[in-house]
Automatic annotation (TrEMBL):
Keyword Protease: yes
Protein name per UniProt: Protease
GO biological process, one term: proteolysis
Pfam families: DJ-1_PfpI (PF01965)
Membrane-crossing residue ranges in chain numbering: none
Family, per entry: Belongs to the peptidase C56 family.
Assigned keywords, A-Z: Hydrolase, Protease
Gene3D superfamilies the UniProt entry points to: 3.40.50.880
Species in which this protein is naturally found: Streptomyces echinoruber
Example GO molecular function: peptidase activity
PANTHER family xrefs: DJ-1 PROTEIN (PTHR42733), DJ-1_THIJ_PFPI FAMILY PROTEIN (PTHR42733:SF2)
NCBIfam families per UniProt: PfpI
Length: 188
């Protein structure tokens, strides 16, 4: 069986930040599960950048069936985890089951890919202290408050943690994450 990768999501996750890594990892031969607070149809959003707006805009996005509820996830079954952004991380960080899952990945030094607002989740398990990260630029103060050094770059690698600012950074983000994942959990 190929190595498994977990994507953690919820309603209002950014569509592209879930589907791009999902499809890219499957293309590489990894088995990918999407986990959510409950096993249900998730409603994603699309964040876009439009002239004249001071920040991103939000529109309804794709839907997706969650494969597994957080309470039923065994982190030991997974080689890595992907933490998408969108608005979902704002409330998902309060889920004790998800915090246990994420902490186990950091404790085991397994690859973690985070993007956009996803670092709000990894900050909630103290996974960023002393690390170099990037995130959606408006989160720079949050990253510093979590003990991280913020870098405004396409992809920032710190050990097995790979972070990116937002979906326009997908190529660099996935390139770096897959480099680490292939070394730690190659598809045979």
């Amino acid at each position: 069986m190929p190595p498994k990768v977990l994507i953690v999501a919820g309603d209002a996750a950014e569509s592209l930040e879930v589907y791009y890594p999902y499809q890219r990892l499957r293309e590489e031969g990894y088995d990918v599960d999407i986990a959510a607070p409950t096993r249900k149809t998730l409603r994603f959003v699309v964040h876009d950048f439009e002239p004249g707006f001071d920040t991103y805009t939000e529109k309804p996005g794709y839907t997706c069936q969650a494969d597994v509820a957080f309470a039923d996830v065994d982190p030991g079954e997974y080689a890595a985890v992907v933490v998408p952004g969108g608005r979902a991380p704002e409330y998902l960080r309060n889920d004790p089951e998800l915090r246990k899952i994420l902490k186990s990945f950091f404790d085991a030094d397994k690859p973690v890919a985070q993007i956009c607002h996803g670092p709000l989740l990894t900050a909630a398990v103290d996974g960023l202290r002393g690390r170099r990260v990037t995130a959606y630029p408006a989160l720079e103060p949050d990253m510093q408050a979590a003990g991280a050094t913020f870098q405004d770059a396409e992809a920032v690698v710190d050990g097995t943690l790979v972070s990116a600012r937002a979906w326009p950074d997908h190529p660099g983000w996935m390139r770096e994450f897959l480099r680490i994942l292939r070394a730690k959990a190659p598809v045979t």
